[in-house]
Specification:
The protein has 3 helices and no strands. By secondary structure, it is mainly alpha-helical. The chain has one domain.
Amino acid sequence: MELEARRKELAPKTFSGDEKAKLELEGLEDEHDEISRTTRVAKAAVPEFEKMVGECEERLAQAERAVHKAHHERLRDELTEREQEAEELLATYFDKQLQIKELRSHVVIEGTKAGMRIYPDVFSVADKLFEKARAWELRL
């Protein structure tokens, strides 16, 4: 606006023959032309910049997806490892429970043969643990 106001002020002086005003007006016209060219170039560059921004946003989205995929794969591998460990522990636990049951039956048989009275509550702790493990297995 300042440039335009100065041009309007100098134009009448230029027509009346003021050389100084004419030189200043020519300078202002050159400055105006330069600003106009710069504005046109900037406006012409907008679509390319918007395209570049869009490409950057897409690359960022791809990078974020790659990070999430890597985290997913790491967590999935860890989950698989933990599940395998749990299965091994359960298998070991059930093997031990079977050994306990077998040993218990021998205790009862040998105790009975020795004339001892064997009370069922002696084995209740092992039975409770076994039932808890079965309940957990059913939840999985």
